[in-house]
Amino acid sequence: MDCPAASFADPFARIDPCSAAEVAVAALETVFTYRPSEQADQRSSFRAATPLMTTDFAARWDTTGPVLAPITSMRWQQWRRLGIVLTATARLGDDDHPADTDTLFARVATVALHPGGGTPSTSLVVYIRAIRPNSPAGWRISALEVRT
C-alpha cells in the first residue's frame, strides 16, 4: 500500500510513519524511558513522545501523564537520588487483538523497564491503539492504557 506520509522529525526520523508497529514501539519506549535526575516526573517522557500521538490524545494525557504507569513519587525520588536511568524496551503481542484495518491498529504490549541498562526491574502490560485518518496518512497513537 502506498503511504506518502511525511517523515517524523528527529529524534523519530528513523521511524516509518507508515508502519503502525514502528510508531507504537517508538512511542512506548519513549513514554516509559525515565531519567529522574533530569525530569521532574513522567510527563517529560510522555511529552517527548507527542510527535507520535494524535493531538487530542497528547493534550488529554499531558496533565495526567504521571498516573499512566504505576510509579510512585517515592520511587521516582529514589531513582533521582541514585541517578538511575530506566530504559524501556517494548514488545508488541501478536495474539488476541482486533483485526487491523487501513485506519486502526491495536495491540497488547509488554514494556520492560531496565534500570541502568540492566535486568528489567518492572514489566508493564500496555494496551496501545494507533489510528490514521486515511490510508495514505501516517499513524499516530490515540490511546495507551497500562494494565495492573
What does this structure look like?
- The protein has 148 residues and is an alpha+beta fold.
- The protein has a single domain (20-147), classed as Nuclear Transport Factor 2, Chain: A, CATH 3.10.450.
- Helix content is 24%, strand content 25%.
- It contains four helices and four strands.
- It has helices spanning 20-31, 43-48, 55-62, 73-82; strands at residues 86-92, 104-115, 122-131, 140-147.
- It has a four-stranded antiparallel sheet, covered by helices on one side.
- β3 and β4 form a beta hairpin.
- It is globular, with a radius of gyration of 15 Å.
- The model has no long low-confidence stretch (mean pLDDT 88).
What characteristics describe this protein?
about 150 residues, alpha+beta, Nuclear Transport Factor 2, Chain: A, four-stranded antiparallel beta sheet, 4 strands, globular
Per-chain topology:
Layout: H1 20-31, H2 43-48, H3 55-62, H4 73-82, E1 86-92, E2 104-115, E3 122-131, E4 140-147
Antiparallel strand pairs: 1-2, 2-3, 3-4
What is the CATH top level name? Alpha Beta
Instruction: Assign the CATH topology.
Output: Nuclear Transport Factor 2, Chain: A
* End-to-end Cα distance: 37 Å
Outline: globular
Tell me how many strands there are: 4
Q: What does this entry show, briefly?
A:
With 148 residues, the protein is α+β, with helices and mostly antiparallel strands. 24% of the residues lie in helices and 25% in strands.
